[in-house]
Amino acid sequence: MTSSSVSAPPCIRIGSAPDSWGVWFPDDPQQVPWRRFLDEVSAAGYEWIELGPYGYLPTDPARLADETGSRGLSVSAGTVFTGLHHGPDVWDRTWEHVAGIAALTRAMGAGHLVVIPSFWRDDKTGAVLEDRVLSAEQWRHLTTQTERLAREVRDRYGLRVVAHPHADTHIDTEENVTRFLDATDPDLVSLCLDTGHYAYCGGDSVELIETYGERIGYLHLKQVDPAVLAEVVADGVPFGPAVARGVMCEPPGGVPALEPVLAAARRLEVDLFAIVEQDMYPCPPDRPFPIARRTRDYLRSCGRP
C-alpha cells in the first residue's frame, strides 16, 4: 500500500469567532473594528474563523477572501438566527435571510451553516416575546421546517446545517435538545454542540457526545462560571445581561472541563471543527486578544494542535 492511498486520520480543527471579540451585531460602536478582529485572531494563533453576524465582515466574497487569505485565515461556517417554530408562514422571509449568508459561506469555501433558534425573551431587556414552552404543533413546525431548511441549504449551497442549542431559546436543556434530535432526520440535521450554552442550561456535553455522537457535526468551545450562573438563574436574568455579568468565562476557569469534551469528540473518529466562543458583549477593545491567545495556548495543552 502506498502512502498516498492511506487516508488521513480524523482531526479536530480549532478556530475562533467574532463572538470571542465581543461582536454580536453587524455594526456597533462598542465592538472592535473588523480589521482589528482579523489581525488579532490571526496573531493569537488561529487559522479558522466563523463569519459572525452577517455584515460585520465584508460581504463581498473576493474582498473577504483577500482579507482572510492575507492573514492565513479560512472560514469554517456562517451563522443564522431563525424562528422556524412559527411554521410555513415565516418560510419566505427566513429563506431570504438565510440565502445571502449561505451564499457567502459557500463562496468562502466553508461547509457548515450554524442555525440558532430565535429567543423567547429579549436578550437585552428580558421582555418576554413568547411562551417559553412550545406547543406540540410548534415542535412539529420547528423540526419539519428545520429539515426543510437543511435540505434547501444542502441542495442549493452544498452546506451542512448544524443546529445550535442556545440559552433563552426553545432548544436549550437536555430534554429539549434530545427531543429535537429524536424528531429530526440525521441525514439532514446535525448538532452544533456549544459546551457553554449546554452547561448554562444544565446539560452534560460529554454525555451528549457519548449518547448522540453520530449527530455531533460541529463544536463551540465555551465555559460557564458556576457562581455567576447560579446568580443569574436565581435572579431570572436574561442571557444578554448574564453575559455582561461574566457568566461565560475564560478557560479553564469554568465548566465544563474542555479536555474531557475534546477527548470524547476525538473518540468519535470524525473530522470536526471546534470553534472557541467566549461571549463577552460588551467588552473593552483591549480585553479579547490576550484572552484569545491564552485560550489557544490552553487548548494546545489539551493535546490539540
Strand content: 15-25%
Number of strands: 10
How do the SSEs run, as a string of H and E? EHEHEHEHEHEHHEEHHEHEH
Number of helices: 11
What form results from the Cα inertia axes?
globular
CATH class bucket: Alpha Beta
Structural class: alpha/beta
Strand order of the largest sheet: 1-10-7-6-5-4-3-2
What's the CATH topology label? TIM Barrel
Roughly how many Å is the radius of gyration? 18 Å
Q: Provide mean pLDDT, rounded.
A: 95
| Structural domains: how many | 1
The CATH homology group name: Divalent-metal-dependent TIM barrel enzymes
Question: Would you kindly provide a brief summary of this structure?
Answer:
With 305 residues, this protein is α/β, with parallel strands linked by helices.
Textual characterization of the structure:
This protein has helices spanning about 35-45, 60-70, 90-105, 135-155, 175-180, 195-200, 205-210, 225-235, 240-245, 260-265, 290-300; strands spanning about 10-15, 50, 75-80, 110-115, 160-165, 190-195, 215-220, 225, 250, 270-275. About 45% of the residues are buried. About 40% of the residues lie in helices and about 15% in strands. It has a single domain (about 5-300), classed as Divalent-metal-dependent TIM barrel enzymes (TIM Barrel, Alpha-Beta Barrel). The strands form 2 sheets. An 8-stranded parallel beta sheet has the order 1-10-7-6-5-4-3-2. Helix 3 (about 90-105) packs parallel to helix 4 (about 135-155) and helix 7 runs parallel beside helix 10 (about 260-265). The chain has 11 helices and 10 strands. The chain is globular and about 50 Å long. The two termini are about 30 Å apart. The longest helix has 22 residues, at about 135-155. The protein is of the alpha/beta class and about 300 residues long. Helix 2 (about 60-70) links the parallel strand 2 (about 50) and strand 3. Pfam families: AP_endonuc_2 (PF01261). InterPro entries: IolE/XylAMocC-like, Xyl_isomerase-like_sf, Xyl_isomerase-like_TIM-brl. Keywords: Isomerase. This is Sugar phosphate isomerase/epimerase. One of its GO terms (molecular function) is isomerase activity.
